[in-house]
Amino acid sequence: MAMYLMRALSRRHVTFTRISVLHSRNISDTILPPFRLCNAQSATIPCIDFLCESRRGFAKGRKSKQDSGPTTVDVTLDIGPALKENAAAQMDAAVVALSRELSKIRTGRASAGMLDHIIVETGGVKMPLNRIALVSVLDSKTLSVNPYDPDTLKALQKAIVSSPLGLNPKEDGQRLVAPIPPLTKEHIQAMCKVVSKSSEDVKQSIRRARQKALDTIKKASSSIPKDSVKRLEKEVDELTKKFVKTADDICKSKEKEITQG
C-alpha cells in the first residue's frame, strides 16, 4: 500500500512540474532557473551574450567617411561666397546712395534727376516730384516738367521755385520749362565742397562694410585653414578697392560737371 502511495505522489509531482514549465515558457524563456525533471538530465538555459558582443563590436568599429563631420574646406566654401556677397551688397548700397545725393546738386548742365528730391504738396498730400510729373532734358541748359495731372501744374511750379536750386520755371501750355542759370564762382566752390564731403562719407560706409566682413572672418578663423583666411581677407580688400574707385569716379565726374558747366 505504501508503495502505491509513493508512486502516485511521484506522478503528481512530475505532472505539476511539467505544467509549471509550460506556463513559465509562455511568460519568458530567459528567466527560468535550471530545473530537473525526476531522473532526467538537468536542462539549463544558456546565457545569451550576443548583445554584449555586438555592443563591443559596435564600439570598436571605425567611423566611415559619410559619418564624419564637415571638413574645413566645406566651411570655407560656405562662408566665402556669402561673406563677399553681403559685403558687396553693403558697399553697392553706399555707392547708390552717393549717386542719389549727387543728383540733387545743381550744376550748370540740365539733369533729369536734379528735381527728384523736391517735395510737392497737392490736394493736402506731400509727394516727391518724380511721382506726379515726368522730368526730361530739352537741351544742356533747359528742363521740361510734364505733370501727369494738369491740375498740379501750379503746385509743381511753386515747389520748384521754393527749392534751393535757384530755378524759375515758366508755364508752357500744360508743362513747365525751367532754364538752368549759370553758376557763380562761389556756388561752384560750395558745390565742390559738398561733393568732397559726400565722397568721404561713402568711403567711410564702404570701409565699415569691409570691417564687418573682416570681423566675420576672424570669428570663423578657428574652423578655417590659415591660407583660406588670408585668401578671404585679400578678396575683401580687393572688393573694397573696387567700390572706392567707383565712388571716386562718380565724384570726379560730378565735380567736372560743376566746374565746366
From TrEMBL:
Q: Name one Pfam family in it.
A: RRF
Domain (Ribosome recycling factor) spans 98-258
Identify a single GO molecular function assigned to this protein. ribosomal large subunit binding
Keywords, A to Z, come to: Cytoplasm, Protein biosynthesis
Q: Can you list the GO cellular component terms from the UniProt entry?
A: mitochondrion
Where does this one sit in the cell? Cytoplasm
The UniProt entry's GO biological process terms, in alphabetical order, are:
translation
Taxonomically, the superkingdom here is Eukaryota
Q: Does the keyword Iron apply?
A: no
- What InterPro entries does UniProt report for this protein, alphabetically? Ribosome_recyc_fac, Ribosome_recyc_fac_dom, RRF_sf
Q: Does the keyword Protein biosynthesis apply?
A: yes
What is the stated purpose of this protein?
Answer: Responsible for the release of ribosomes from messenger RNA at the termination of chloroplastic protein biosynthesis.
Q: Which family does it belong to?
A: Belongs to the RRF family.
The protein, known as: Ribosome-recycling factor, chloroplastic
